[in-house]
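To the structural biology subgroup,

Please find below the input and predicted structure for Malectin-like domain-containing protein, which we are adding to the shared reference set this quarter. The sequence is reproduced verbatim from the submission form. If anyone notices a discrepancy with their own records, reply to this email rather than editing the shared folder directly, so we keep one authoritative version.
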Amino acid sequence: MPGFLSIDCGGAANYTDARGLRWTSDAGLIATGTPISTPNTSSTDTQYATLRAFPSDGAKHCYALPVATRARYLLRATFLYAGFDGDDAFPEFDLYLGATRWSPVVVYDGARLVTREAVVLAQSSTVSVCLSNATTGRPFISTLELRPLNGSLYRTDAEARAFLALAARINFGAPSPDPVRYPDDPYDRIWESDMVRRANYLVDAAPGTVNVSTDKPVFVATSERPPEKVMQTAVVGTLGELTYRLNLNGFPGDGWAFSYFAEIEESVVPETRKFKLFIPGLPDVSKATVDVGENAPGKLRLYQPGYYNVSLPFVLSFAFRKTNDSSRGPILNAFEIYKYVEIEPGSPDALAMASLASRYTSLGDWANEGGDPCWPSPWSWVRCSSEPQLRVVSINLSGKNLTGGVPPELVALSFLAEIRLDDNMLTGPIPDLAASSNLSIIHFENNQLTGSVPSYLSSLPKLTELYLQNNKLSGYIPKALKSRGIIFNYAGNMDLKRQGIKRSTTW
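Predicted structure (tokenized):
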């Protein structure tokens, strides 16, 4: 499918699966981690034969996925543990979307696939997915999937400040436990079967709940466009009500919740199907009476009522109950529930730091760490402050084989206190760092810098160490530096002089 990105984490080769999805190895897409073959897995899907595991070292480990700015995507990460590390303790760690904590990943059953899905509006040309903060075991990941969403699917007024994290997407009346996804769903959403049984998932079903289905076409080209195959099945409350209870991952909180109805039952004589939604403790949630045939309008057509913003509990119990003037019990084909996750802005220095790192991506893993430079843990060559904001205060790129000019992004890092760019092959002048009034330590020694020593250096109020030795600087040292009680080394710059004094190297 055009625009689909399917990453087999830990996989060694690219391939196309039985669904027609093209899978790509993550080799070259991430700088850290170890590919591992998963033992004892019962899955027949090739992508679950391997995973990528990371050390429990307090660092974050990030994938940067290419996206189109301002486009909306479905993003899915999966985790199949299968006892890959032979540890007695199941892994528990955090999943991040950029600087935002997306969800905890907690393994309770080594053979069960853990899935996290989100609908995100891309704010830049990449989306970073990071693993961090292991409580037990090692962070790991099996797959990453990115699916573009056309038009207005899942558009919300809050999408610039919050993304949608999936809590439930259920296909009711399913004929088997198998989920419905691509190619039946062109957006490759995974509609879980209501036949799947696990603790606190779709329990407390009302007596008289039966499955119904049709093989006739159902019109679904509106709203969120659930797949026709999902809308061709449903459950009906033949005794007047449908009831269910399930736990909602990530809740309590504010969410996006919609039900999908279509009248797919045949009737010999005209009949009515009217019902209302009831949620204990939430009387305001009950909307107007649902009359599927009238609201759709007609048979075999999608009707999608719901809430763009509704507060829901962790344990959701709900019922659809027929009205007194209805001749048939309620019907339910499918529903989706997402939680709003507020986007954390991260460090204001993130854009400048990403631009700086992008200059050196071929020089080593350090330039490809990805994610926010400060949160939830800083890049290996960066130190950050935490109050009142996450700001980059130290950069250490000593001996990294840097070439070209001093990276201009340094000028935008106004909270820098320490810069170490020594022992590289940098050329050109020393940039204007006057805006970084917190600078106290500067190491530019052992490069090939040219030009003069900037006069602003003598005005930096916190400067205590300035190392410029073994460059190609020229001209006179600013007089004001004479009166500063700083460590200042400029040896090895043959054309650099102190005004009124013969050459010296250090004071």
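Summary notes: The chain has a mean pLDDT of 92. Residues 349-498 form a domain with the Leucine-rich repeat, LRR (right-handed beta-alpha superhelix) fold (CATH 3.80.10.10).

Regards,
Lab coordination
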